[in-house]
Write a structure and sequence with these properties.
Elements lengths: L9 H13 L16 H15 L6 H11 L5 H13 L6 H29 L4 H18 L20 E2 L6 E2 L3 E6 L5 H15 L5 E5 L4 H14 L11 E4 L7 E4 L2 E4 L2 H8 L5 E5 L2 H4 L6 H18 L2 E7 L11 H6 L2 E7 L12 E9 L4 H4 L3 E5 L15 E2 L12
Parallel strand pairs: 3-9, 3-10, 4-5, 4-8, 5-13, 8-9
Antiparallel strand pairs: 1-2, 6-7, 10-11, 11-12
Amino acid sequence: MIIHEQLYDYNIELSVLSTFFYDLSKTPLDIKCEIFAHPTLKEIFQTIQFFWQKNIPIDESIVKKHILSKNRAIQKEVLEDILIEILSKTPISDLKNYIDILEEYKKKREIKNALLSLSQGLNEHKSASELEAQLLSFVENSTNNSSNNLFEMQTAAKVEASEASFITKHFIPIPENTVSIFSAGGGTGKTSLILQLAMHFLHENPTKKVFCWLSEDPLSLTKHRLDKLINGLFKEGKYTLDRLILSESITFPVLIENNRNIDVNSSFYKMKQMLKNFDLIVYDPLIAFYGGDENNNSHAKLFMQLFTKWAAQEGKTIIFIHHSTKNSSQSRGASAFVDAARAVYEVEKIKDKDGNEKNTSKRKVTITKDNYRASKYFGGFSKEIQVFPNESDDKMLPYEVEYQSFNDINEYGIT
């Protein structure tokens, strides 16, 4: 069976099947077997569905025996090798995203088959009416059989009213379960500001965890910054470091170019799985994770939608640190970055009337986008915040902080 590479993902199909072997809480009954393009994997999934309905344990030896007894075309050795591949995969906690990917592939295969059928009809000199009827039939059936509605609808009477919630209200209020951006130029201290915010969050929430992917700085420098902040500005921060996880790992592009189209890197979904146990997630800088054209609004919108959807569905608060345009604190690149964020803060040095920096330990922090009224807790739209300890406060005491490679963290729910 030959299937075009873009219309099929063998590894995702393996991972989905692995989930049903290892996680009994996941039901396969609402999933259509047609999303599996590989015939043997489809056969295995149909067997899993059958076993689930009959309340039969989903065990690889029983599955193998059942399939071989009813399908003589499948070779025993091939089936055994595929089952080993399935069992070697890591189960998926967020199964829906992977099912959506396979659904997308399935639709593309159906469209391709429909186009091939129409092309064959043209070669057979079918009439325009016949071809039109064939096309309309495909469109109607495809729409009726679609498992994903274009959008959801809800009566206003059933919607439960609530105000937006924020983290770190008394420091820098950040809208919860959505995406915010901090924009600043180089050397402004935006990373130190975010590290301070992370410790405030952990101090206020003793059971929660923060992950900071700080790709531009070595961890030794980040640790030095944390020591200075704890000794000079936020002593309570020393009690939060066991829940503050850092990474300096090489980043990956979330968006990748594929035959002149922009696709979502499958590593994005693996990252979501790895970060499932974290509540506040920081990416520094945004551009290191992007992968699209920085000035293309369509690319930027797709990128931001991935993170806003993730934040809303899984209760994550996500912060991007973003480079500003030259000689300003405004976010650079496509306007869709800012459009998708619910709050945008700009950080800049404090200068006198002659343009000379003053009060070097503080920075001017300004809310330039405020969809959820963070300014109510911020005390307005702009204020000076101490980002660095005073120069005279140079006594350094080391504190332990968790810092590991992005791929090596296991204790915190990352595999």
